[in-house]
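sorry for the late reply, my laptop died twice this morning and i had to redo everyting from scratch. anyway the thing you sent over, i finally got around to it. pasting the sequence first so we're on the same page, its 212 residues, then the predicted structure underneath. double check i copied it right bc i was rushing
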Amino acid sequence: MGYYAQVFAVELEKIRHIIGSNDLSLLEKIKSSDLYETYESQSEDVDFEIIIRELIVNNPNSVNKKETSKFFGLFKSKPTFGLNPKYAHEYGYAMLAVCDALGFYLSDCAEVLYTGDIWKETNELFKNKGIKIDLDKMWQTENLFDIPEINDFPVISHYSKNEIEYLLSELKKINIETETKNNPDLKEFITTFRDGLQFCKDKNLEWISFIH
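ok and here's the structure:
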């Protein structure tokens, strides 16, 4: 079935500010998110809770030695600038849990936005209609957060508020019923994408995607 996009409607700056905030009260809120347990159970190399604590502290020198030992005792090497590049992908999934805790998870998108044939068909339709921003922007890794560079997955990207406005404006010009006649999967895909964008606009939030 290929890779898929998990999408969140978030206030980007609010998400960014948790990194290095030293507000450990956020830890419990993140741990209570719906998706935390999923990714905690899949974290094999290091304790997922420690990964999130690192994000919040983000600087071993800002805590006492006892706490530093507690936070990073499971790591084989000392993190650089508070975060260990070896666990870059774990920080990426931790940011996914943060977005789930502090934003809105667009679950319909996760069930529909798979990067297979329908994804390609949608991009082709967008291209034919002259839409200048397509789905593949979600494959363009952006340095949205102050974490080590991720060389594989998740691929983290976003649509800004202006890009959301543009996409919705262009999608209104498309007669989805006509363009997707006899192709219910394509119709569902485009409609789900559009509705996710509309949710972000209505809430005055940005779209952040994690492809994996």
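Residues 5-211 form one domain.
thats about all i looked at so far, will dig more tmrw
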